[in-house]
């Protein structure tokens, strides 16, 4: 109840904010994409974590309004970056499974991109494995419309859901984002290392881009390079940051 009231107020008072975390291309160190992560400021110095308020928003149905806010504001930010060093960057937003049950979602996303003079290839959506496992019919149709238009589609937290890979065959997917626990365990345990390697191989065999999350140390970074991963996301390279810190972050990397 409390969190729901907080979110309603946040939507009204504009105390929601998107942070952005760059993804590093491991072949050349360049940044072509970043993940948008929602923050809710309630007046205290630290924002409320989405891992607290997103599940509550999903239950109350408020997630659809919040999801629209995220899409709208990702597009606004992309538009603001046009004409700067960030004009080519892609922003990936997290979607809740519940948003996919709205049959106007794909239309809404494409219309919002169009309204901001953006190409669909500048936006991506991330869905967790657990959220896409049960999707069927109408939801797959929505994802297909998005992918056909050029929107990038990623499976998030890959490896934490059911182990069946069959669903990947039926889904229009571009990237797999391997959950950070696999990387962290692989550093300590040979079986986990084997699993991580196998996931990367499966991703590549299916023609997908493989992103590893949670890269925190130089050792982890060289491991993911050795394992032929495509992209790395993690605190070693960058923490999620407000939009206005992104230009400086890029400039500092040279
Ligand atoms: O940024 P952080 O690690 O605190 O995020 C915690 C969780 O909240 C992650 O699982 C992330 O995917 C989720 N999350 C962050 N922003 C959004 C959002 O805009 N929409 C949805 N549905 N989930 C989000
Ligand atoms: O579930 P999802 O992958 O969307 O969650 C992304 C979350 O992971 C973000 O909220 C971000 O704060 C967090 N995150 C990003 N990089 C790292 C990292 O290197 N280590 C840890 N522990 N968390 C990270
Ligand atoms: Mn994500
Ligand atoms: Na993830």
UniProtKB/TrEMBL annotation:
**Domain EAL intervals:** 1-254
Q: Tell me the organism.
A: Vreelandella salicampi
Q: What is this protein called?
A: EAL domain-containing protein
Which spans of this chain does the record mark as coiled coil? none
């Amino acid at each position: 109840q409390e969190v729901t009231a907080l979110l309603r107020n946040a939507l009204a008072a504009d105390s929601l904010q998107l942070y952005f975390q760059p993804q590093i291309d491991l072949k050349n160190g360049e940044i072509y994409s970043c993940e948008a992560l929602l923050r809710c400021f309630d007046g205290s110095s630290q924002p409320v974590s989405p891992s607290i308020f997103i599940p509550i928003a999903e239950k109350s149905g408020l997630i659809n309004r919040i999801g629209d806010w995220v899409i709208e504001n990702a597009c606004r930010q992309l538009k603001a970056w046009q004409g700067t060093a960030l004009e080519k960057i892609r922003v990936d937003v997290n979607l809740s499974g519940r948003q996919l049950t709205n049959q106007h979602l794909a239309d809404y996303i494409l219309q919002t991109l169009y309204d901001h003079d953006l190409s669909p290839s500048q936006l991506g959506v991330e869905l967790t494995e657990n959220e896409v496992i049960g999707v069927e019919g109408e939801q797959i149709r929505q994802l297909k419309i998005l992918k056909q238009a050029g929107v990038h589609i990623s499976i998030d937290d890959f490896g934490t859901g059911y182990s069946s890979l069959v669903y990947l065959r039926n889904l229009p997917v571009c990237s797999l984002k391997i959950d950070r626990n696999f990387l962290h365990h692989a550093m300590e345990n040979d079986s986990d290392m084997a699993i991580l390697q196998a996931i990367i191989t499966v991703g590549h065999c299916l023609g997908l881009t493989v992103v590893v999350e949670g890269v925190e140390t130089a050792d982890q970074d060289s491991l993911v390079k050795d394992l032929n991963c495509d992209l790395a996301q993690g605190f070693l390279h960058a923490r999620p940051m407000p939009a206005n810190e992104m230009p400086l972050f890029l400039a500092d990397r040279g």
